[in-house]
Every structure is written in structure tokens, then in C-alpha cells.
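Notes continue from the previous slide.

Worked example: a multi-chain complex. Inputs as given:
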Amino acid sequence: MAENENLLELKNIVYSFHTYGGDVKAVRDVSFNVRKGEILGIVGESGCGKSVTAQCILRLNPEPPGFFSGGEILYKGQDILKMSKKEIRKIRGGEIGFVFQDPMTSLNPTMRVGAQIEEVFVGREGYSKAEVKKKALEIMKLVGINDTEKRYRQYPHELSGGMKQRIMIAIALVSRPSLIICDEPTTSLDVTIEAQILDLLMELREKLGTSIIMITHDLGVIARLCDRVVVMYGGKIVERGTVQELFYETAHPYTQGLMDSIAKLDTEKGTKLKPIEGTPPDLFSPPVGCPFAARCDYCMDICNEELPQSYRISKEHRTSCWLQHELAPQTEFKRELYKEGDVK
Amino acid sequence: MAKYVVKRVIAALLSLLCLITIVFFLVRLMPGDPFTSVKLTKEVAANMKSYYGFDKPLLLQYATYLGNLFQGNFGYSMKYTNKTVNYIIGQTFPFSADLGIRALVLAISFGLVLGIIAARNRGKKLDFICVLIAIIGTSIPDFIMGAVLQYFFGIKWGLLPVAKYLGFEYTILPATALAFYTLTSVSRVMRASMLEVVQQDYIKTARSKGLTDFRITWKHQIRNAITPVMTIMGPTVAAVLTGTFVIESIFAIPGMGKYYVESINNNDYAMILGMTVFYGMFLVTCNLIVDILYGVADPRVRIGKR
Amino acid sequence: MGEYNKEKFVIKGKSISGMESIHRPSLSFWQDAWRRLRKNKAAFIGLCIIVLYALLAIFAPMLSRYGFSSMDTSAMHATPSAAHWLGCDATGRDQWVRVWMGARVSLTIGLFSAVINMCVGSVLGGLCGYYGGRLDMIMMRVIDILYGIPSLIITILVMIVLGKGVTCLIVAMCIVGWIGSCRFVRGEVYRLKEQDFVMAAKVLGIPDFIIIVRHIIPNIIGLLVTNLCMAIPGAIFQEAFLSYIGLGIAPPNCSWGILAKEGIQYLRIHPHEIIWPAFFICTTMLALNLLGDGLRDAVDPKLRGTE
């Protein structure tokens, strides 16, 4: 059981932003958990709420205009939403590290990179200056930076994009947190660099036993890296499960759509990729029913009228789709539901 | 860094040469000359002209002038007989410099603080008050500010001396009047820059490190927000300097600005020329220092990336 | 579970037809800017004050029975009264008329020198930024050097050479004034030129002239208007300063700078002579600054569509 222990658990998170046109409901009733030592992927189109979800774990969204209107975020059993500012600061950097999307703008241009890594220890007791420097150099080496002493003294503009992202990862890792959250860490990098960074993350998980939340819109990254996946759409989770389940026993048309829209090696020459037509819903006034209904090839009347429940297919695999309902017609998506599991 | 400094110095020297040339030829174009205003016989006037070298070809005059400048000699006054421009600058500049430095220190320190307070309390009452002070300050010319301060604190309430420059209490009113306009522009730039920086990704990174708000503001926000303020330091020094022209005459301070205005009204060519070149050199040097400091503050500037 | 009707579980397929419709009303650039400017109370008040002052400057001297330079020895230093609304100056000239005559001069100079500087600077800066190349190289070197020269000193010298008067003032202020806007416009155009939508237009073979008119100008016009609005108070300031040190307008003509200069001499005994000119200078500045700030926010693309 120890292996399956929850490190982080989000329960029914609702997060919105105030704007002049009304509140934008960016995250609507999202729950998931992260276990020790696992890599959890969160996948979805841009604007589906995945970044907001990730950032609200550390309460990094600007508040106001952002605000929670419900839910719990349990980290090692304690609710982050009930913590004081001081307690949250201890979690940030110390317990949970964060790697941002764009390494070009995420490093302070007027500070040497060494100092930026060491800064994580500011305000944490029990480290001497020399120790902190040793840790910084160590972590730089660990994330694959050669010539650490020289790099330590450089400014961000003197480094390449891949190198900057390694520094970002070093910042997230230097205090040996139990979880790091990577918000599209490779989106702005070259494909070759992307591969290096992903390998690095896998290696670090092996070496340090760190849990990782990997946010991406790229299913390739998910397949390569993750143990379990959460698929988000329109601020809600539409499907979740292990990587195998998601890829081979897809139970939601949106997940299928995501997979159809990427090129595979075995795709025959000349066949066209199948994009998901349409655009994600406007979260100012989200639809009453299933958020994907309007773009779904399998849309039924019920989909526009009511939100689907979460159907449990296996221990890990769940989906929110009316196609799983007993009255729904037989489709490629219909699965046998998990027996002992309760249907919420 | 060395390359950057050399480049800036060369540019500054070129500006200076350009300025001296423009000043020299413009002054020769000026209407009226001091020898017509005084009752002199033609002979005496011709003698004086040759004494001051006005009968020589223009280019030769220019060359002589450049040579003199190179030796640190700004020329003679034609109104105050036998007084060199150097002598008058030496007599008056210390007052102006003293006043200017006081005003600059006041303006920069209060301006920065005001800007930071406003940005940290964005949208709240304190921000509104700071912005209001700033926008009112930018709307009051310094001669009006000087007059208002003089009227209330000096004349009406008798709290502070009205004129002359004899001790600390004499410096308060002129320095405040001089600083006010600059103060507000510094605070506006600082506020805008702080708000710009706070949206940057690296502030989020800093927050994700679990730093205190104080440290984020101090180490990340202010440090990066201050560089745009440095770009307006050149114009700021120039504004304070021109401010001394009017403030010194309002408060009867025997500084260089007052003499400059007097020599303009006296058509004292050599004096205007000498003082202008001196002012020009002074400002160009200030700009150069600011540029170099800017390079120190923002490592990206040095290699030409912005 | 049995509460659902089987009919509702018939696959109908997607309905993306209406999806691209936008939920919020779309506004053109100027509509949006105008909407936000009106919402900004301070900027709107600024605009009203400026319009009011401009009207007063045009009509007040015409409608008054006093001439701006006609002296009245019986009314020397008169305090404000029904006959002389703002009192009289040292030679018994009506201050109300003089203030609005001064406004004519000050506002004209402010507007003209700011507009001329902006036009000259924009054309040169735009050409340099858009065509680049050797012309740009040379221009930038020259401008870097000119920029290093304190502009006020040149203005003062040119004023001394040209003598006093409105035209001379405008000329003197424009000789070096365009450099700032030239640098600014060049930077903006250069940045825009590199952007994809301009590249796309170029690749399609659209002539430069059309690209400039369709793509470059609409993207910088907002900033230019804002800069113009910010430049006017600067120019009024400079005029006041030059008049104050004795270089601006020749008496008996007047400008706000002259009125302030004359008023300050009698600060101790007749404070009303400085208070009213000072009040109008300051409120004009304030109004222009508020309007400028409002305009800047109104045309800022980052703030588009927000409150």
C-alpha cells in the first residue's frame, strides 16, 4: 500500500477568474490524485484549464482576479487551501517544485543563474552558504550541465533555451522536493532538446523518486513518460486511466480525437490526419451538458442537456461520457463497467 | 563590457564636438553684438574686436576656440570686464551643483519610493493618492512651484527664508521646488515599470520558490524595474539643470543659472558660448555615466540585446 | 437510472456550425478605444477641460470690452471685481483677456510644435525603420550623436539667433524636437516589419505603399496619438520656460509664461496676478496629462476588451 500512497489529492476543485464580462470558470469540479514516485500526465488543448489547475496547486495564479469557489487540495493529508501564507511558502520550492513553460522568460535576466538556484534556500533554515553552493553545483551536474562552475556565474541570456530549461529544472529540484509540476516544459524547445529534457525527467524520477505532474498537449510526451493520464476538456476531466488503458481502450470520443489528430509512424502515406473540428467552449458561459458535445461525432440529445456522470471502467480507468450509459447505443467506446466500484 | 564603454565614450565625444561646432556658429549668427550696445567710438570698437579676435577668419576663430577649449579655457566675458568664463563658472557653479544634487537626491529617492508604494498597492486608495500626486506634480511648472512655495512657506507663514543661499534652511524651498517635477516623473516611470515586471514569468518562478513577498519585490521586481528608470536619468538631470535657471532667479541664488539668464539678456556672446559649452559637456558626461551604469545594471544591454 | 428516455440516446453527431460565433460583441479598434476612453472619467474630464479652454481662448478676447494691451492707469493692480474678472496687472491691463490671449499663444505653440515634431519624426523614423539598409545606418548614427546634445541648449541658442515671436519659437522647438519621435517611430516600425503578418503581406507581393497604409500605420497610430497628446504639455512647458527666462514672446504680446513671469514679480503684494495664470497653466497641463494617460490605456492592445 505504501507505494500507492497519495502524495497529492485534488478534490472537487472549482477555480474562476473575475473579468468584466463575468466570471470565467477555468476549472470546474476537478479531482485527481498523484501517488509517490509516479508520473501523472495532464493532457488537453490550450485553454482547457490544465495550466490553471497546475498553478492553483501552489496558488500561483494571481488572486485576484483568480479565486477558489470550492474544493480541497490535500498535500500529505493537509489542505493547502487552508494554509497560511507562511506554510504555503514552505511547500513552494521546498516540497513541490514547479517548471514553467517558457524558459526564455522564466529566469530573472539580471541575476546570475547560480544565485537563482540557491535562492530556493533563502528563508529555509539549517544551510550554510558553502553547503548551498555545493547543492547548487551538484544539482546543475545532475540535470546535465557541464562546466558547472562557469555556468554558475553566467546570466540567463548567455545560455541556450535547452540549457535554460535545465536550469529551471535544477531550481525546481534543488531542495529535493517530493513532487515537481512541469507545465509544458518542452513546448518552446526544439524536438531534439525536448527528447533530452524528457529523458532527464525520467532519469531524475529513477534517481530521486520524485513524483512528477506533466502538463502537456502532446500525447507523444504522455506515451513516453507517464504512468497515468488525466484528459481535460473545457475545465473538466473527461477521461483518466493508465497510459495503456487510455491508448488501447479509449472510452471517450475526445481522447480518440486527440489521438487521431497526430501523425503516427504506421499512418499510410496519403491518409489525411483527422483534426477535431470546431473550437473549445467559451468558459464565460460553459454549456449545460457535456462540454465536448458540440464537437462530438457521437453527440446525443442527452449530451446537450445534462452533464454525464463519471463511469468507472477499471480500477484506474474512468470516463465522463453518456456513451457508457446503459441506454446508449453500442459504439466502439462502450466498455464493461467496473463491478465492485461505485458509480458516483 | 570594455567594448561597450569605449563605444559609449566615442559617441559622447562626437556629440560634444558636434555641440561645440553648432554652438560656435550659431553664436556668430546672433543679432547685435556687445560693442554696439555700449557707447564706443568706431576705433575703440575695432580695437576691441581685434582684441577678442573677431576680425580674423571664421575658421581660424573656430580653430583657436577649439584649442582653447581643449586646454580647459572657456573664454572671456565681454560684459564683466576682465573676468574669464572659467572664473564665473568657478564662482557660481558650486551653488548650482549643491542645489542640483540636493534636488536630484530628493527627487530620485522620493520618486522611487512613491512609485513602489503605488505599484505595491495597485488599485487601492494609496495607489490613487500616489498617482494623483504624480499627475498633479507633472502639471505644475517649476517656476510656479517655486513661487507657490515661496509665497506660503516664506511670505505668508514665515517658516523658511525666502531668498539667498546661506545655510541648510535656505536650501529647503528651492531644492523642493526643483525636485518636485522630476520626482513625479520618476515615480510614474517606476510605477509603470513595476507593474510591467510583476507580470513577467520570472516573478512567478520566484513565487514558486517559496520566497517571501518582501524578497520577491526587493530582489526580483525592483531590481528589474529600476532599469527603465535609469533611461530617464539623462533627461532628468537636464530637467533639474534647466530648473536651476528659473529657481535661482526666483530665490535670488547666485548660481550659474541666474548668470546664464543674465548673459542671455545682456547679449554677452562669449559668456553664453562658454557657459553653454560647459553645460553641454556636463550633460554629455552625465549621460555617459548613466549609459555606463545602465550597462552595469542590465547585463543584456552590454552585448546589444535588449 | 431508469429515469432517462431512450430517445435521448440516439447519436446525432456534431453541431459545430454555430461554434465560431463569438459570445462577446466585437468592436473595431477605435470603437473599443473610444468606449474605454469614455469610461475613464479622469480622461473624459480632461478632454472637456481642453475643449472648454480652447473655446474660451478663441472667443473670450473677442467678447470682452477690453483690449489685451490697452492699459488703464486707474486700474493698476486692481483686484478681481465685476469689471475685471481676474483683476488687472501692473499697467492696468485686464487679466481675463490677457489670460485667454496667452492661451491662444501657448496652445498654438504647444499644438503646432508637437504636431510638426511628430510628423517629421514619424516620416523619417518610418522610412528608416521600414527600408532599413544604409540610409537607416547613417540616419541612426547621426541621430545618436544629435540625441546626445542637450536639446534645450540648442533651442535657447536658436531662439537667441532668431529673436522673439511665435514662429521663431515653433521653429526653435522643432529643430531638435523631432529626434525623439523619430527614434520612437523607427523602433516601432522596425519591430512591426519583423512580424509575421507583415512578412505574409510581403510574400504575397503586396506593394510597400499598401503594406505601410494597411498594416504599419494602423498599428502605430494609437501610440502616435498618445505620444502627441503627451508631447503637447511638454511643448507648452518649454514655451513657458523660454518666455520666463526672457526668450519667448515679445511684450506686449503675451503667453502664459510671460503672465507668470510678470505675476511673480508682484507675488508679495498682489498674489492674484500670479494665481490665475498659474491656475490655468496647471489645469491645462493636468487635463492634457489625464487625457494622455487615458488615451495610452485606451489604445494599449494589451488592455483591449478589458474594463
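Summary box: Chain A has a mean pLDDT of 83. The longest helix of chain A spans residues 191-208.
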